[in-house]
Amino acid sequence: MLVGINLLREGLDIPEVSLVTILDADKEGFLRSERALIQTMGRAARNEKGKVIMYADRMTDSMEKAIDETYRRREIQQAYNEKHGITPQSIKKEVRDVIRATVAAEDEEQYQSKAKKVKDMSKQEREKLIEKLEKEMKQAARELDFEQAAELRDAVLELKAER
Q1: Concatenated DSSP letters of 99-119
Q2: In whole angstroms, what is the distance from residue 42 CA to residue 46 CA?
Q3: Residue ranges of the Helicase C-terminal domain (predicted)?
Q4: Distance from C-alpha of 41 to C-alpha of 47, rounded to nearest angstrom
Q5: How many domains does the structure of the chain reveal?
Q6: Domain range holding 73?
Q7: Is residue 44 part of a domain?
């Protein structure tokens, strides 16, 4: 069992995760936004028997949009799988790979210090950084490294929000 919204939301890559539960899913806020819910729910998508349970007293717009987006993506993936004769299977990782993922999560501290440096940048420096990250994001997408592209996209969105 693994507990920790931030670890799941930030993309900790543990394909053995087959059940994700989101407590108080109807409490609107940063960790319950549409994007955060999609990211958290996506952790279960790496397992062929993955399941997500959201505990809530009411259905919020964020929950509804996240569920709709999940169904939309599932339809696209199933059509692609059928077209190409792919049978989904969970990836199996060695314990060493899981340890590497844990080390990556510990690198969060380094991320925080980089974030402080970004706040000290001038508007022009920030714009150049956004351009650089957008180029890297597009390159990652061309190379089919969608996880990296998504991380870069999120970084660009955060930088643009701070304008």
Answers
A1: HHHHHHHHTHHHHHHHHHHHH
A2: 7
A3: 1-99
A4: 11
A5: 2
A6: 19-84
A7: yes
Is 66 a domain residue?
A: yes
> 43 lies in a domain?
yes
What does the pLDDT look like over 71-110, one tens digit per residue?
999 999 999 999 999 988 776 655 445 445 555 555 555 5
> How far from chain centre, in Å, is Cα 137?
15
Amino acid, res. 27: K
- What is the C-alpha to C-alpha distance for residues 23 and 1, in angstroms, rounded to an integer? 15
The verdict on residue 8 lying in a domain is no
Global pTM value: 0.51
Reported as a single tens digit per residue, the pLDDT across 43-76 is 777 777 888 999 999 999 999 999 999 999 999 9
Nearest to 89 by CA among 12, 15, 146, 13: 15
Query: Cα(98)–Cα(53) distance, rounded to whole angstroms?
Result: 24
